[in-house]
Structures are given as C-alpha cells and as structure tokens.
Write a structure and sequence with these properties.
Length: about 350
C-alpha cells in the first residue's frame, strides 16, 4: 500500500514572468486573487517572479531582464503583496526550482509536452527553431509549484492545461516510486475576468508580449493612456444587452463587461443591470473612470518603489532565504526517493 509520508500544509504558489510590463490580464486574471488569498490567511502564500521562464521564448537583453524582474516585484508590492505575510521570491535565486525541474524533465513524456497549447501557440509553425527551454517550460512550472508542496495555484484560464500537467507529473512520480510525496495541486481559476482579451481583437488573449501596446492596459500606464486605450478599444455599434446571452458572439463587448465587473468586484450581470441599453461611447467612459480609479494608485506606487532598487533586492534576498527553508528539504527528500547519493 502507498503510504502518505506528508501531511500537506495548505499552501498557495503562483508565478508571473518578468517578460515585460504587467497587464490588466495578469492583474484581474491572477494577481487580484493572490492578494485575496494572502489576506484570507487560510494558506501560506508564495509568489514568484519566474525569470528562468522569461528566457524561454527569446533571450532578453540582460539589463532589461533585471529591470523587468525588479519592476514585477514592485508590481507585486504595489497591488498589496506583503513580504512579511507572503514569501516573495525571484525564481533563479532559489536553485531548487531548476534542480527539481531536471527530475521532472525525466518524469514528463515528450507527448505530454507536445500537446500543450501554449507550446503550439508560442512555437508556431517553426517548432524546429524554438528553444528546448520553451518545450520544457511546463516541467519547470511543475517544479515551481511542487518544490513547495503547494496545494493551490491561482492562475488565469490560459494556465489551466499547465496545472493539469503538473498534476500528471506529481501523480506519475508518486506512482513510479510508490510514494505519496507530491500533492496533486488544485488550480484556482475564479472571478469575472479569468481570460482578459486583447482590446483590439476580442478573440485573442491580452498579452504583455503582443507587439502592439494598444491591445493591452499596462499597470504602469498613466490615467490618460488608460482612458485613451479604452476609448479606442474595438467594439460594435449595438447597445449593451440586458442579459449575458446577448453578449454571445460579441467577444469585444463581453470583454469590456467582464473587465468592468472584475474591477468593480461585481458579477457581469450586475454590470448589465446598470448599463443595459447604453451605447459603447457612454459605457467606455464609465469603464475608463473605473479603471483609472483602480489602477492609477498601483502605477503611482510602482514608480515610487522602483526608485529604490536596493530595497527590492533586499526583499527578494530575504524571500529566497525563507523559501529555501521549505525547498531544500523537499529537494533533498526527492533526491533520496530517486536514489541520488547524499553529499
Ligand atoms: N489575458 C489574461 N487574462 C487572464 N489572466 C491572464 N494571465 C496572463 N494573461 C492573462 C495570467 O497571469 C499569470 C501570469 O502569466 P505570465 O505572465 O507568467 O504568462 P502568460 O500567461 O504567458 O502571460 P502573458 O501576458 O501572455 O505573457 P507573455 O506575453 O510573456 O507570454 C498567469 O496566471 C496567467 O494565467
């Protein structure tokens, strides 16, 4: 019989790539939940800048990667992550992530990785030229989560498949070694905006690496930029319906309603209850006011924090120390299970 050797502590882990400025998609799809879960106090919470992931698609200029990582840390702090309540880390500063990823590279199957839609989207038609790191990305992500024995992973909808793969890797490791060592982590995909769409094309995800800045709202945008991007967002000529079914086949309209709902912390139907019949010219003004009210303080705080990079580095150094108190014993035990000699 397989015996559980670990009582899993309720623990949340989630990461964001420092691959450019944070978007409204990152914020509403994932980061808002981070703060709620931290403040609920029912789980230990660990949040991570995944810089090793940020070199998989292209190799960023080193100074830009360092700046993006610090700016992302400022973003975490500005939205309300408290480095005393949560562990806030940069992935490469906790080497056990990459060490466990190697083991998982040997657990995961090529077929599993090849089926990942993000791999297919990002590698495109030219998979031969994509990096091995991009292909192996989900195994590193599984290691990020499981090196903490995390039980819950708040993410946007686009990451659901990677969490399922993390569960498959944990289950295969446990099965192959006859242990119950890694938890089967649960995705937490909640809220009105689990998939925030591109402002110019409601069928595409809002993404920080999209070449056009008009397609997204960045958390560092000024009030004027936010209002202008919302004003210029693609919509249709019809008024807002009074029921959600009236948004079917209107992806851009549905996106703006969902964004409004998520920013106001209300259900999408409540947005329609108060704006049914409004034309987009009018609704966009209300949305721009709300977005500026919610996002401008975040942008101001990020600018303030970025003025003191040494303080950001200190917070990340301390986070790495606290993280390693969890990850080192878990990696040690993994090596032991696999049969690596102890040094
Ligand atoms: N548009 C989105 N709607 C909802 N959630 C989103 N997330 C990202 N975009 C949206 C969620 O944010 C978290 C961090 O994602 P990431 O930055 O690590 O990578 P990503 O999902 O690949 O996001 P981007 O913006 O598209 O980055 P690039 O362009 O660098 O690939 C995840 O929980 C994600 O679900």
């Amino acid at each position: 019989m397989i015996m559980a050797e670990t009582q899993f502590t309720p623990r949340v882990f989630s990461g964001i790539q420092p691959s450019g400025g944070l978007t409204l998609g990152n914020y509403l799809g994932a980061m808002k939940r981070f703060v709620q879960m931290q403040d609920a106090g029912s789980h230990e919470t660990i949040f991570c800048m995944v810089d090793l992931h940020a070199i998989t698609a292209t190799l960023p200029d080193p100074a830009t990667l360092r700046r993006n990582t610090r700016e992302l840390c400022a973003g975490f702090l500005a939205i309300g992550i408290d480095p005393e309540k949560s562990i806030l880390i940069n992935q490469s500063q906790v080497p056990e992530h990459a060490q466990l990823a190697w083991i998982f590279n040997c657990i995961a199957r090529m077929g599993w990785m090849g089926r990942m839609t993000q791999w297919k989207d990002k590698a495109g038609k030219n998979a031969e030229a994509a990096s091995l790191g991009l292909f192996a990305y989900p195994a590193l992500m599984a290691a990020d989560i499981l090196v903490y024995h995390a039980t819950h992973v708040p993410v946007g909808e686009d990451q659901k498949q990677h969490i399922e793969l993390t569960r498959d890797i944990a289950a295969k490791f446990n099965h192959d070694y006859g242990v119950d060592f890694f938890p089967i982590a649960e995705p937490v995909i909640e809220g009105a905006a689990t998939r925030v769409m591109n402002l110019q094309d409601g069928t595409k995800k809002m993404s920080k690496s999209d070449p056009s800045d008009k397609t997204r709202i960045n958390l560092t945008d000024t009030a004027d930029e936010i209002a202008k991007k919302i004003r210029k967002a693609k919509t249709d000529p019809d008024p807002l319906p009074d029921a959600l079914a009236g948004l079917d086949a209107r992806p851009e309209a549905r996106n703006l309603v969902n964004i409004y709902a998520a920013l106001a912390d209300i259900a999408p139907q409540a947005v329609l209850d108060s704006h049914a019949g409004a034309l987009f010219g009018h609704f966009k003004m209300a949305l721009a006011d709300l977005a500026v009210e919610k996002l401008a303080p975040i942008s101001g705080e990020m600018t303030r924090l970025m003025a003191d990079p040494a303080e950001i580095d200190r917070i990340l150094g301390r986070g790495a120390e606290r993280a390693r108190a969890i990850t080192a014993p878990i990696l040690d035990r993994t090596y032991d299970i696999v049969g690596m000699l102890k040094s």
